[in-house]
Every structure is written in structure tokens, then in C-alpha cells.
Amino acid sequence: MSGLSVRNVTYHWGRHRALDEVSFDVAPGAFCALLGPNGAGKSTLFGLLTGLFRPERGKLVLAGHDMDRATRSALAVTGVVFQHPTLDLDLSVWRNMLYFAGLQGLTGRGMRGRAEAALARLGMEERAGEKVRALNGGHRRRLEIARALMHDPQVLLLDEPTVGLDAPTRHDLTAHVHALARDEGLSVLWATHLTDEVAPGDHLVIMHKGRVLEEGRTPATGPALTAHFLAMTGRAVRADEAA
Amino acid sequence: MKHALSALISICQREGLRFFGQTGRLVAALVRPLIWLFVFAAGFRAALGLSITPPYETYITFETYIVPGLVGMILLFNGMQSSLSLVMDRELGTMRLLLTAPLPRWWLLTCKLIAGALMSVLQAYAFLAIAALYGIRFPALGYLTVAPVLLLAAFMVGALGIALSSTIKQLENFAGVMNFVIFPMFFLSSALYPLWKMAEASALLHDICAANPFTHAVEAVRFALYVQPNWFALGVTVAAGLVFMGIALWGYDPGRGMVRQKAGGPAGS
Questions:
Q1: What number is the ipTM of this complex?
Q2: Beta-carbon contacts below 8 Å between A and B
Q3: What parts of the sequence cross the membrane (chain B) (predicted)?
Q4: Which of A141, A240, B37, B128 is the most exposed place for a label (fewest CB within 10 A)?
């Protein structure tokens, strides 16, 4: 089995329950939008999916590899773009790619070929010699996505990758990653709080306060989805207050 | 194995590129020990008499005595700075990239440690070269035999730095710990004065200095520069390095959940 599976995952920050029995699946080649307001638990879930810390309860399986039992195998088939930039600003674009390649165990000509191909895929090949510090926010994000794809992952995790970007750049990046899922069979988990990044046909998981409120095919897009999302999360808030 | 090696090379290359890319970092690293050598040691030469103790076979000037201690100072400051970069990496997010590589965490931290130690050794040799030009020379073979000892000593202080960084959440806190660790470690050691000199001043001070692992790192370097092994000092240095590394690995264990803060925390969650 490939894709991504999250089963009954629970996690606390001290007394605060950040994730409460979270479960959902992402099929191979599917683009899954993980939609939730700030504090929904999206980044906590990403921390667990990338092995930075372990869930107290539950199971995470990435492309068939159990994150708890086979952490390294799971990480080897996963590409990650974190919410906060993870680039070395003082190194060139090319050196950042090679550094990551080394961490992934890629060496020699194969490594260079993959780095070139990954940069070309995101239209970054002409910027290879530039210092990352000189790149704008959009190009830095493109570079992070290019880097995350260098080792041919089966699962791509992106935690609010468009934060701080202007509308056209956001649109381009979202469209590009949708195309990656469609054309290359990547299972994509795209965390966001912006409903306009969800496309028709996407798998949708709505989270609020550590719980999954809804999972399934996107019921609507654009303003209708925004209204639906607000209604869902607003309803959850009212239910919490009543309880 | 190939994967582990490629990660080690990549991490060392990154450290080297960052080091040589920041113009003036080598100069800045050397200024401190050189001031100690040219100003402090020169001034103390007349005031301080040193008797003949191993590894010295004749009377030596204070400058000659202090050079291994200043080499230790370079290793200590650089080891801590390397750990400081870990805290910065954590705040900047690059630590997440390192910790999510499909390799054992202990190996990733060891790679970081080796890379930092290599940079330290490079700076130590640059300092020894300037000291030689100034007239403080050691047996030619000593420059070779000191290399592995420098690496071990750099590894030990670097592991201490990583262990400290695993318990610190913010860069500002780390600066405070630097003052509480570096200065006591340096001054309460045999870097500036021999232990017997300390004993003359205070038995307690002597005991503290003798228990300080940095003292043993400096002594191991001092003996190695004269092509003499000091097995006890080496043993203490290695043992202390292993203990510090154990604490560092414990601190960065994902099962403990502490790493969640160190890795930058779950913004917005």
C-alpha cells in the first residue's frame, strides 16, 4: 500500500490536547488539503509525520512504512516542506541542493543529475549559482519544493508552504503541486488555512482544535468552501462552548 | 554505510563553506588567544616562575606554558560556537532538515560534532603556526602527534556544547550558559597555570581544576605537542566526551518530546 495513513493519533502539549484521535487517509496520487485555522494541530501533525517527535497513541504510515517501526524507511520516501524555511541563506542554491542530497545518501553524477532535474522542474535552474539570501520569498519556496522532490519521494508533505507569498506566486505554487500529484502520482498532504488553495476534486480534511471535523472529497471551492469551512469551525466552537 | 558517509561529507562541507564564506571568522577566532599570548603572557612572564614539570625538561617561559592552554581555548570557544549554531539552526529551521534525514539521530549529531571539531582543529593549527612565527616552537613531530588529541579534545567540548544546546530553548539563554560554562571551565583549569601553582593558592581550587575535564584535554594536548602520551588525561577526555555525547543524545531523543521545542516547536499549534 502507498499513500498516507493517519490512524487514531493523539498528542498533548503539556495538558493541552493538540491532536485528538485524528484519522484520515491520502490515496496514492491524491492531493489532500488539510484545512484548519491556526491552532488546529496541523503543525503538530507534521512534526509527528516527519518523526521529529512520536505520537502518544495512534499510527502513521507513509507509503507503506510505519513511522514508529520503520522511521528511516518512512522518511526516505517522504519529501517535506516545513512551514518555516529550512534553507541555508549563506550558501548558494546549488550548495543547498547538494547538502540535502548528501543527507539523503545521493552521491556522484546521479546526485548532480537529480539536483539539476529538480531545479529545472521548478524553473530554478538559472538561479543555481545565486546565494539563497538573494532570492525572494517565492523563489525560496520553489527551491524548498525542488529540494523536497530531489530524492523522488512517494509522499510530499507541505506545511502552509505559501505563508508570506503574494497571490500570483501562491496560485502558481498551488497549481504546480496539484500537477505533481496528478502527473507523477505523488501523494500530497498540503496544510493550509486558505480555502482558495483547494481545487475541485481534492481530498479535503477539515481540522479544528486537534480534531477532524470532516473528511472526504471537496464539497465546493471558492467562496462556497470558505462559507462551509467557517460554518464547520464556527459550529465546532459553539459545540465546545456549550460543552 | 555509503549513505552515512555521504551525510558526514555533506555536513562537513556545509560547515567548511560557512566557515570560509564568513570572511574574518578565522581572524576573529584567532584574535582572542593571540591577545592572551602577546599581551597577557608577555606581561606575566616576569611575575610567574615555573618549575620543571613534565612534559617540560627545562625551564620554560610563561608564553611557552600557555600555548597549549590557548589551543584549548580555541577548541572550547569554537566547540561552543558550533553548538550555538545548532541553536541558531533550530531557530532558523535548518535543524529540522537535519533531523528528518533518513539516518539514525545519533549519527547525524555525531556528523555535526565531527564537522565542528575539524573546524576547531584547523583554527588550532593556524594559531600554532602564528605562535611558531612568534618564536614558540614545539618538536616537529609534536605537530603531527597532537592532531588526534586535538580532535578528541574538540570532540569532547563540542559534545558538551551539544548537550547544553539540547536543554536550551532560545539563543538568548544560550549566551547566558556560555558565560557560566566557558569562563569557569577555562579559568578553573591548567590552561593558564599549572595545577601545582593552583595548589599553592588553594587546595580547593586545585581539586576543582583537577576534576575539570577541560584540564585533562589541555594536558593531553600539552603532552602530545612534546610527543609524549598522557594516557590518563586522554582517558578522562574520551570518557567525558562519551558522557557529554550520551547526554546530548538523550536530549535530542524524539521519544522524550523535548526535541519538539528544540526543533522549532509547532508554530500555531
A1: 0.82
A2: 120
A3: 34-53, 65-87, 107-134, 140-164, 176-196, 231-252
A4: A240
